[in-house]
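Renewal narrative, Specific Aim 1. Our central claim is that a sequence can be written position by position from structural information alone. The example that follows is taken directly from our test logs and has not been curated for this report. It begins with the structure tokens describing the chain, in the order in which they were read.
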């Protein structure tokens, strides 16, 4: 998310995760070490954010996009976590047994990968079927692992459960970063009409409509199913509904206007990404010119 908001977003995420862990995982037989690792996972997910999504990394073949064929940013976060844990003075797992260490690393990897929305939708469908079919078995390792994935995503999307002023500010910062990615894509030749609405700065006036869609199809269903399984979490689902109503009200008021100060929303230049992509563009052009020269040379020799 927006780099200026990292510390606040981490607080928001950890706070909601704490609530979820208290009401959810305390009802299950789960090692306290894993609860601790859960918090580590959430901090790692906020670490080394690049301000672009997986699709961007893949489409423009950035260093990360070339390195990881799927779950690009999530794999990057996991590898950074392993790197930190391998650094002297930072290995918080140094006193656990080799077998427990291996299991913890696996736990961290699976929890971080669960925040990839492309994976989440499949997990959410399975979880909903278990809950609605009343077949969720807390003694089943597979079911608890699935719940772990759902909890990770619910924490990642937790801004929709906050008071509307807080939720609105987070949404504006998030969309401003989406728009910045769209600006980058246009700079590299993409047409505005080909961009998703959430990446198109020209769609700013429709932000309430986009946020309602986000709640209806991404965030809302997560909290609905959690609330269906855990009575203690119904309050979070009610907050999501209240926020949706407030966005609906803003939508009816006409074109949306940002309330966050302009200096906060001012896009930062992603110099690293831009520089990297420019180098790749120059290299491809050079390769293309060399191939063209080779063809011309070949034709000349034949003649």
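The sequence written for that structure reads:
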């Amino acid at each position: 998310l927006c780099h200026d908001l990292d510390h606040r977003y981490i607080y928001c995420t950890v706070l909601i995760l704490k609530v979820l862990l208290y009401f959810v995982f305390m009802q299950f037989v789960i090692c306290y070490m894993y609860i601790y690792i859960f918090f580590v996972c959430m901090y790692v997910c906020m670490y080394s954010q690049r301000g672009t999504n997986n699709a961007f990394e893949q489409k423009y073949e950035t260093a990360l996009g070339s390195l990881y064929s799927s779950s690009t940013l999530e794999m990057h976060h996991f590898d950074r976590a392993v790197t930190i844990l391998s650094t002297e003075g930072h290995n918080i797992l140094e006193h656990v047994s080799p077998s427990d260490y291996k299991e913890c690393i696996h736990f961290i990897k699976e929890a971080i990968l669960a925040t990839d929305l492309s994976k989440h939708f499949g997990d959410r469908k399975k979880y909903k079927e278990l809950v609605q079919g009343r077949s969720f078995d807390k003694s089943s390792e597979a079911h608890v692992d699935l719940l772990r994935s759902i909890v990770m995503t619910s924490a990642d999307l937790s801004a929709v459960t906050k008071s509307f002023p807080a939720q609105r500010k987070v949404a504006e910062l998030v969309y401003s970063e989406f728009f910045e990615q769209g600006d980058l894509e246009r700079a590299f030749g993409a047409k505005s009409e080909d961009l998703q609405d959430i990446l198109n700065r020209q769609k700013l006036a429709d932000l309430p409509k986009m946020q309602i869609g986000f709640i209806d199809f991404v965030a809302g269903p997560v909290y609905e199913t959690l609330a269906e399984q855990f009575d203690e979490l119904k309050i979070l689902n009610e907050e999501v509904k209240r926020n949706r109503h407030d966005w609906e009200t803003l939508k009816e008021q006409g074109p949306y206007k940002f309330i966050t100060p302009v200096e906060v929303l001012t896009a930062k230049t992603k110099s690293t990404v831009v520089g990297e992509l420019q180098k790749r563009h120059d290299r491809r052009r050079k390769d293309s010119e060399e191939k063209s020269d080779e063809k011309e040379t070949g034709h000349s020799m034949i003649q």
